[in-house]
């Protein structure tokens, strides 16, 4: 018996539905899945039959847990290049979703991590539920927030994006809306009826008729210490401010950051600060591809995945082990243009 397709696509009325279909893996993305999604969006962009696109995930656990990190890790330790092809396709898909000329509605229900944010937070209409848990935890595996994460987080209000990027913490519905990663709160029980409405009605009107007021979150309440502490120019300075702040949440954030890869932290802060001044999402994605290619071969990425996902001892041995040992010239090399850079300018608007 053949395996079910990893992505389901179908038309319901005027609605094109894309359903990630690897529920046992919380719909972790593969190259095949990204390719299927891109092909569907390209086809529907030119079709008069499709007015709205809906992106959802199969199963009860979440929309998408990100990229297939185990496969990327295997590629990294073997010296392969399959991950570079995956990222090139994934980042092109992120750009396609962001510039799509028809409404894309993304259900950010359940777990939404890393690459899952890339296929949802760039959509035109982003819905969270009471079950939503969003995060970009890449610094915990020696990587950086990619999939346009540097663009999204650098454009979050105040220093909220820096806080989320350096801690890798997960947030719920209200905080996702506050951070600019989502737009509307719809209780999970209403999603099936919303899907029916989207098949025939205007997307914005259908969502508005099912959405409720966003419940209160935590980020807004902590903006004073977040904006003050994360405005510092370096990771050591940020840690100093967090540790000396009277807010217990600030000191807890410092402890979270201190456990992450020192190299990934420095790369991530520079990536966010740089992305804030870039002209477009595409430019940010091109920079992220450069960083991803460099970090794929770094010792911290392989070690971070080993500690978190393979051996699961949660005790990564970072190299260097502390921020003082991070070589600034090495970090600068990660950002330097190469002959193999990704070029997203060749792809026109959808």
TrEMBL record:
The keyword Hydrolase applies. Residues 16-335 form the Enoyl-CoA hydratase/isomerase domain. GO terms for cellular component: cytosol. Keywords: Hydrolase. One of its GO terms (molecular function) is 3-hydroxyisobutyryl-CoA hydrolase activity. One of its GO terms (biological process) is L-valine catabolic process. Transmembrane segments: none annotated. It catalyses: 3-hydroxy-2-methylpropanoyl-CoA + H2O = 3-hydroxy-2-methylpropanoate + CoA + H(+). The keyword Hydrolase applies. Its EC number is 3.1.2.4. Pfam families: ECH_2. This is 3-hydroxyisobutyryl-CoA hydrolase. The lineage of its organism: Bacteria, Bacillati, Actinomycetota, Actinomycetes, Micromonosporales. The gene is echA9.
